[in-house]
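so i finally got all the pieces together for this one. its two components total, 254 residues if u count the protein bits. some of the lines might not be protein, just check the labels. i wanna see the whole assembly predicted at once instead of chain by chain like last time, that was a mess tbh
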Amino acid sequence: MGLFKQLKQMKDVVAETPDLIDNAQAMQEAQAQQAQAMQAQAAAASAAASQAAAHGAATGNGFDPIAGVSIELYADISKELTARGGDQSLAPSIAAEKGVDRASWDAAVAGWNDRMRANPAIAKRFNDLWRGVG
Amino acid sequence: MGFFKDVKKLQQQGKEISKGYDPVAQMKAASASMQQMTQQTNLLATGIPATATVNELRDTGMEVNLQPIMEVDVTVFPTDGAPFPATARTQGHGVIAGLAPGTQVQVRYDPADPSVVAIG
C-alpha cells in the first residue's frame, strides 16, 4: 500500500474514532444496567421453559383450527389488528369482516395464544404467516 | 534461508494480510453494532412490557467482548392487543443458555416499531 493511501486510511480511522468512543461509552453504561436484569431473566427463563414443555405436552401440538379459525386466518386477523393500531376493541369487527363471529374469535384468541405459548413450532408458523414468508 | 530473504517474505505476508483488511469499515461496523445494542437497552427503560415466546435463536456472527451476539425470534403477546412477531438481540453465553425455544420471556416493545423488542 502506498504512503499516501496509508495516510488517507489513517486520517479516516482518526475521523471515525470519536463516534466509536461515544458509542462504546453509551453501550457500556447501558449494558451495566442490562446485565443485572438479564441475570434475573435467565434464571426465570429456565423455570418457565420447564413449565412450557409440560404445558405443551398437556395441550398437544396440533394445528387444527379452533372454533373454525385456522392459524392462517388467526395470523391474518392479528396482522390486520396490529396494522390498525393494535386496539383490541377493534378485533371483533375485524374478525367479523373475515367471517368470524365474536364467540369464535374469543375462543380462537384464547386457544391459539395458549398453543403458541406452549409450542414454539406453532408460534414460529404464526410469525412466518404474519410476515408473509410461510 | 538468508536474513533479507526472510524480511522480504515477511513483507509479502504482511501485504497479503492487509489486502482484505479495512479498519475503517470494521470501526463503522463496530459502531453500528454498539448503536443497536444501546437502542435495545434504551427500549428496556421506555418500552411497553409484554410476554413473549422464544421461537428460534440465530447467530449473527458478531461478538462483543468475546460474547456472541444472537438474534432471537419471538412471538409477542401484548396485554391489550393481538400477538405479533418480533426479533431481539442479546449477548452472553449465560443469557443465551436461558433462551431455549419455548421459553417465556418478558420483553419491551416500541408501539411505533413493534418489530424490534428488548428482552428483559
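Residues 35 and 71 of chain B are 15 Å apart (CA to CA).
Chain B touches chain A through 51 residues (CB under 8 Å).
anyway lmk what u think
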